[in-house]
Each structure stands twice: as structure tokens, then as C-alpha cells.
């Protein structure tokens, strides 16, 4: 334990009492285990009308806030708004704050809320006056600076915004402020300021598919800012073209770039037609196809598109509907056949020779069609003869990375170990380094008789904390790589973080029950010294703030901090229903951690609710069968109710699938009726790893891996025993 600073202890005792925290590692009395603590300060009566002071001694000070307008400092001297804001950024004195009595801190919190409201409604003079008169030394002054800049946005604040961002005193607020002003300058078409704000090119967009949604957004802002300034014309056109042709969801922040793209004449009818043709082939873009077809009715392509849409629902009718093979008719026939091949691959394959003879597709068109066939025939529902057809017919140039991965999974399914080994070596190096392909390369080497090479490869895989890492470790009899990062047992809360400004700000916002506390939490996680960040994570765990504990890991990438990444929340409820349903406790936690990150109130886009993401319709079925009274969808946010229903449904899945957690987890995610179709029907034995790798849905494949891995980790955290990733009956099971 560190030496205690009794002046700070007095202040921290107030903070800890207010926020339900932990003092020196001991839980505060009254803070229920596994429950989120709530702030005790009542601010419901605080309104801006409680404050009557105006701008210093000058009651006539201007309030509209232009840079030429002034407020008065405490001596009556004129100050520019920007100077006032920068002065306020220095108005934090932790020692002064530590010495303040409880009543003074309570008044400062009330004043902070009043100043916040003043800035948000544009009464900047009042906001600054409250800061100056009542909030000297208060840790949250930086938030009031942010509110001043983030609300009532205008160009005159730009220099202050840049100073705020460049100071990097609060990285999360800087990012929020940058985004707000980027939207403002985009709307104003003020590209000079937007370019200064965005700065240099943030990413290399050579491969659009490698960029995250947020990265695409930032790249759009960069090109939007610099294109009108003639800095990036060619690159901007190239990037905007790819963004336009990408059928996936587009970031809203790309709207400005696309408006420029259109205004400069690059969004041509021909490009719209290309997007239409891309959407037309696929079954999941009907709405996009219909919209683009209407848009093209006002172009020279109207007649062709109308003919194309007549074949949309029944593309196989192309042989009777398309007359001749001239330019327009040929294009209609080729696009219709591509859709036919995508929707009905076997029927289209039977008509393929006829199509080639009648419409004489080009080599490029044939490659596109072969790729469409391959994408279907390498799916889980097709047999070895279909795979062999792809091997025989797909040109070498047509084997893209997606098809290579599909072919790999079929090779694994059919035990074609030589193909597995060779295909992995033909993947790009970054894909070869994926943990699953590293496992399968080692596995293939062993299956081919190269035991020494295989064991060496698998031993490296076994160092990775992942499903396949643990699977390799289990097969080789090695220790599981938990890589467990623990906090120093001699930590002292709050003294170890008494000088951490972000931690102090977080606890103040938490005391105010302010949702913005999450931004200070992420500031702590990303930018605080390791020990101080871990102390705060421990605070979250011991006060039942589970979402903060998990967010700490996710925000900072401290994946080895298992206690915080996999918190043991609502333990009494989980233990109770584990015994009631005979579902292993660690399995319940594994499913819940994957489903909701242990957020009891979360709702999915599909309507699933709570810790175990129970669908209301499923809950009604359970209630009917178990003769329970279901209280409605909102009751599923109650942890006890949710675990009761979720554990019961999971028990049903275990009963249906031979007490096999792998199959039960797959059924919980994708629905039980799919599982029989995914199992083997040819009499060939396939093990757990083969089944998991060959799950056809990317989401479910990853889901099952995570749940089984999380089960193993939770078992370790709950019991201290390392156990088994795959249980004996699951290892010998015929999948």
C-alpha cells in the first residue's frame, strides 16, 4: 500500500462514497456485488435559473459570442472568448480540489451542470461567468471548454478548436470535436478549414476491403477536403469511384465526397449502370437494383435496363425472351445468365453449353460466370462432384482469395490434405498468418505423414489464446496459453490514481450520473500509465460496473486482462440457473459474454434482448412449454429473468444435440433446424475442428469458436482449473 495523503483521502472519500467506489481495494458498504453502483448526488433540481451572475462586473457584456465580443475577468479587464476558454483550461488544481469540503464540491457540481446547460443553449457569457466565479480548480473545466466549442459552432472558433485538438489533453474529446467541425465545414463547403482540420492522409486505401467502416469515413473526409483544393484529384476520383461501386453500407460522412463526385461530372450514367449490374446479379440487393433501375430510366440505357428487369424474377427465361445477339441483346443475356447462375447454379450449369453456343460470351464474361458458379459449388450444401467441377473448369486467373478460402474449407471437409497444404501456401502471406490456417497447415502436414513438421507448426499455434490455439494445445498435451495479466495485489485505490486527471474527471462525471463518463473512461484505458489504468479497471470490476470493465479491455487492447475482459457478473443468478437447468456455469457465461458482453439492457437490431440475447418470440415458446407467465419483452432486461429463459433454451439445445456444446452453441446462434444440414451425411468421420471450420456462416463460425474458448476461460477464472477446451465425448463425436 502506498503512503496516504490525508488531504486527498478526504476528497476521495467523498468521491468514493458518491460513486459507490472501492477504497484501498475494499468494497464500499452498501454497494451490492455484481450490480452497477449509482450516483447519490441529486441534481434534478439544478437549472440554469439558479445562477444570477452575469459576465463579471459588467452586466452589459455581449453574449452572442463573436471573437470581437468580450467578457470581463474578475478584475473587470476585457477578455476575448478564446482567451477565456484557454484560461479555463488551466483552472484545475488537484490539491485545491482535494482540500475542499463536501458542501463546496456539491455546489461546484451544481454549478458545472448550470454552465454546461448555458453553453449548450448558446449563452456563452453566462457559461464563462459561472466557470470564473464558481469553478476555479474544478477538474471538469475542460468539458466546459468542449461544450463551448462543440455547441453553437462557428468558423471564428476554429483556432481555439485546433489548439484544443493539438494540445491532446483529452484525446477522446479531441476526436469528437474534430468530427463535429468536419461535419460543419463540409456542410458549409469550407474546404480550406476542412483540409486544415483533417490533416494528412490517414490511411493507405489501396485495398478498400481492408479498411474498416470508420477508416472509410476518415478517408472520405480527407478527399472531400482536399479535392476542391486541387491536391488529390486523381486519387479522389479513384477512391470515390470505388466507394460508389461498393454495395455495402456507405458511411454518412462520405456524402460530401459523393456530392463533389457528382458535381464534377464523374457520376456518369455508365457508372450508375455498372453499379446496377453489380447489384442485379446478387439476391440480397433487390431494393438497390429497383432503385437504380428507376434512376436509369432517364438515361440512354433505359430500354436495356427495362429489358433486364423483365428477367429479374425469372432469369432462366432469357433463352426465350432475348431475341438475337447484337450489342444490347447480348449484354442483357449475359447479365441475366449471371443472375441465373447465382440463383439456380445447378440448373444454370445444365444450360451453360446452350448459353455459350447461343450468346458467345467473351473470355472476360466467362470468367465472371465461372466465379459465380464456383462461389455456389464450393458452399457447404454441394458435394465433391461439384467441387471437382470447379477444379476442372475455373481458370487459374479466376481464383480470388475468397474462392481460395472456400476451396480450402471444402478440402478440409473432404479430408483432401494435400490440397489443404498446397492451397494455404497459395494464400497471401497475411492470410497464411491467420490462426486457423496456421492450424490447418500443421494438421495437414501431420495427416500427410510429416509429423515433425506438423507438430512444430501446431506447437506455435498452441501459443495463441484462441479456439484453434487451445485446440492445438489440447491435441499436443500442452498447457493452454491463458496469458493471464493480473493487477499488482498491492494496489491502492484511490491513492494510486490521485494525480490522474482523466480518472478524476471520470469519477466526477460518474458522480453526476453523466453518460459522457464513458469518454473519460476510454481516455484512462488508452492513455493512462499501465498501473493506473489497471487500478481503474479493478474499481469497475469490484463495483459491479461490468460494461466499464469490458470496455476497458476493448478500448485499450489489453486482451490479457482476463478478469476485466471476462467479468463474473450476476454470479448468484448464473449459479442458481446453472443448477436448475444443469447447464455448466462456464458455458452460460461463455454464451452470455459472446451474446451481449454482459450488458443486461442491450437490444439487437433483430429484437434479441439482454444478457443472453433472448428473442421475445422464443421467450413466449419457453413460457408456454414450461407453464410460466411471460411478463413481456421489457422483462427480459432483468438479469434474473433473462438468465432463466436463456439457460432453459440452452438446455433444450444441449438435450437436442447430445449434450454437445459445439452443436448447441451453433444452434443458439443460427437456429436448431440448420444443424442437421451442416452435419455429415456420407458416413465419413469428421471431428470437432473440421465441423467448426466448415460452418457455412461466417458469423456462426466465429461465434462457436468464441463461445467454446470463453467457456474454457471462464472455467479457469471460476475454478482455477485449466480443464479441457473440448470435452471427451465431443472429441470422439461424429460430426
Strand content: under 5%
Mass-distribution shape: globular
Largest sheet: 2 strands, antiparallel
Helix content: 55-70%
Task: Tell me the number of strands.
Answer: 4
InterPro entries: Lysozyme-like_dom_sf (IPR023346), Lytic_TGlycosylase_superhlx_U (IPR008939), Transglycosylase_SLT_dom_1 (IPR008258)
Organism: Candidatus Anaerobiospirillum pullistercoris
Family: Belongs to the transglycosylase Slt family.
GO molecular function: hydrolase activity, hydrolyzing O-glycosyl compounds
Any chance you could write out the topology, listing elements then pairs?
Elements: H1 6-19, E1 22-23, E2 26-27, E3 70-72, E4 78-80, H2 81-88, H3 94-98, H4 102-120, H5 124-134, H6 141-150, H7 158-167, H8 171-188, H9 191-198, H10 213-226, H11 233-245, H12 255-263, H13 269-281, H14 286-295, H15 302-310, H16 318-321, H17 327-343, H18 345-350, H19 352-359, H20 363-377, H21 384-393, H22 401-413, H23 417-425, H24 429-432, H25 435-447, H26 451-461, H27 467-476, H28 501-511, H29 517-527, H30 530-542, H31 546-556, H32 562-565, H33 571-581, H34 585-596, H35 616-626, H36 639-656, H37 661-670, H38 675-678, H39 688-693, H40 698-719, H41 728-731
Antiparallel strand pairs: 1-2, 3-4
Amino acid at each position: 500500500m502506498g503512503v496516504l495523503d490525508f488531504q486527498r483521502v478526504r476528497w476521495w472519500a467523498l468521491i468514493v462514497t458518491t460513486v459507490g467506489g472501492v477504497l484501498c481495494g475494499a468494497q464500499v458498504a452498501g454497494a451490492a456485488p455484481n450490480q452497477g453502483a449509482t450516483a447519490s448526488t441529486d441534481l434534478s433540481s439544478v437549472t440554469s435559473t439558479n445562477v444570477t451572475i452575469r459576465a463579471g462586473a459588467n452586466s452589459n457584456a455581449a453574449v452572442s459570442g463573436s471573437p470581437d465580443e468580450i467578457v470581463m475577468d474578475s478584475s473587470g479587464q476585457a477578455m476575448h472568448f478564446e482567451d477565456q476558454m484557454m484560461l479555463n483550461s488551466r483552472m484545475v488544481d488537484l490539491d485545491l480540489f482535494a482540500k475542499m469540503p463536501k458542501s463546496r464540491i456539491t455546489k461546484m457540481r451544481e454549478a458545472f451542470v448550470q454552465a454546461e446547460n448555458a453553453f449548450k443553449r448558446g449563452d456563452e457569457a453566462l457559461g464563462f461567468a459561472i466557470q470564473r466565479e464558481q469553478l476555479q480548480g474544478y477538474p471538469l473545466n475542460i468539458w466546459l471548454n468542449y461544450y463551448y466549442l462543440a455547441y453553437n459552432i462557428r468558423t471564428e472558433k476554429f483556432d481555439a478548436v485546433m489548439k484544443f485538438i493539438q494540445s491532446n489533453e483529452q484525446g477522446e474529446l479531441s476526436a469528437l470535436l474534430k468530427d463535429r467541425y468536419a461535419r460543419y465545414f463540409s456542410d458549409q463547403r469550407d474546404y480550406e478549414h476542412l483540409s486544415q482540420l483533417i490533416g494528412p492522409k490517414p490511411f493507405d486505401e489501396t485495398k478498400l476491403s481492408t479498411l474498416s467502416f470508420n477508416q472509410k469515413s476518415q478517408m472520405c473526409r480527407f478527399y472531400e477536403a482536399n479535392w476542391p483544393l486541387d491536391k488529390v484529384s486523381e486519387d479522389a476520383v479513384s477512391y470515390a469511384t470505388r466507394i460508389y461501386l461498393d454495395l455495402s453500407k456507405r458511411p454518412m460522412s462520405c456524402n460530401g465526397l459523393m456530392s463533389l463526385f457528382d458535381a464534377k461530372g464523374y457520376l456518369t450514367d455508365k457508372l450508375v449502370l455498372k453499379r446496377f449490374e453489380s447489384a442485379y446479379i446478387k439476391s440480397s440487393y433487390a431494393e438497390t437494383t429497383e432503385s437504380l433501375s428507376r434512376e436509369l430510366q432517364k438515361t440512354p440505357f433505359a430500354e436495356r435496363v427495362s429489358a433486364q428487369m423483365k428477367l429479374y424474377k425469372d432469369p432462366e427465361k432469357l433463352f426465350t425472351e432475348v431475341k438475337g445477339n447484337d450489342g444490347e441483346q447480348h449484354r442483357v443475356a449475359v447479365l441475366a445468365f449471371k443472375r441465373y447462375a447465382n440463383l439456380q447454379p445447378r440448373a444454370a450449369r445444365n444450360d451453360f453449353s446452350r448459353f455459350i453456343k447461343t450468346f458467345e460470351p467473351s473470355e472476360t464474361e466467362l470468367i465472371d460466370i465461372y466465379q459465380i458458379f464456383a462461389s455456389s459449388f464450393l458452399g457447404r450444401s454441394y458435394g465433391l462432384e461439384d467441387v471437382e467441377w470447379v477444379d476442372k473448369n475455373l481458370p487459374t486467373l479466376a481464383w480470388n482469395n475468397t474462392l481460395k478460402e472456400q476451396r480450402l474449407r471444402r478440402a478440409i471437409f473432404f479430408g483432401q490434405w494435400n490440397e489443404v497444404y498446397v492451397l494455404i501456401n497459395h494464400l497471401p502471406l497475411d492470410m497464411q498468418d491467420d490462426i486457423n490456417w496456421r492450424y490447418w497447415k500443421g494438421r495437414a502436414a501431420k495427416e500427410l505423414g510429416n509429423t515433425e513438421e506438423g507438430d512444430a507448426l501446431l506447437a506455435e499455434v498452441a501459443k495463441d489464446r484462441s479456439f484453434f490455439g487451445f485446440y492445438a494445445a489440447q491435441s499436443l498435451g500442452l498447457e493452454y496459453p491463458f496469458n493471464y495479466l493480473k493487477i499488482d495485489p498491492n494496489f491502492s485505490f484511490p491513492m494510486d490514481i490521485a494525480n490522474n486527471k482523466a480518472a478524476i474527471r471520470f469519477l466526477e462525471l460518474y458522480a453526476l450520473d453523466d453518460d459522457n463518463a464513458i469518454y473519460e473512461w476510454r481516455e484512462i484505458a488508452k492513455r493512462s500509465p499501465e498501473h493506473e489504468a489497471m487500478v481503474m479497471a479493478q474499481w469497475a470490476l469490484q463495483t459491479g460496473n461490468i460494461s466499464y470493465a469490458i470496455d476497458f479491455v476493448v478500448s485499450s487492447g489489453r486482451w490479457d486482462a482476463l478478469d476485466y475482459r471476462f467479468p463474473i457478473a450476476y454470479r448468484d443468478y448464473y449459479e442458481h440457473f446453472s443448477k436448475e437447468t444443469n447447464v455448466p456455469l462456464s458455458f452460460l457465461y461463455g454464451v452470455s459474454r459472446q451474446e451481449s458482453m454482459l450488458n443486461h439492457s442491450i437490444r439487437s437490431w433483430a429484437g434479441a434482448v439482454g444478457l443472453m440475447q433472448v428473442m421475445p418470440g422464443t421467450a413466449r415458446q419457453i413460457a408456454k412449454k414450461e407453464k410460466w407467465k411471460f411478463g413481456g419483452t421489457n422483462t427480459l432486461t432483468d438479469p434474473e429473468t433473462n438468465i432463466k429463459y436463456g439457460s432453459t433454451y440452452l438446455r433444450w439445445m444441449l438435450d437436442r444435440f447430445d449434450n454437445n456444446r459445439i452443436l448447441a452453441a451453433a444452434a443458439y446462434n443460427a437456429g436448431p433446424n440448420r444443424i442437421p444440414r451442416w452435419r455429415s451425411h456420407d458416413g465419413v468421420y469428421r471431428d470437432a475442428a473440421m465441423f467448426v471450420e466448415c460452418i457455412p456462416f461466417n458469423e456462426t463460425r466465429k461465434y462457436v469458436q468464441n463461445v467454446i474458448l470463453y467457456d474454457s476461460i471462464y472455467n479457469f477464472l471460476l475454478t482455477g482449473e485449466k480443464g479441457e477446451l473440448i470435452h471427451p465425448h465431443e472429441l470422439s463425436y461424429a460430426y
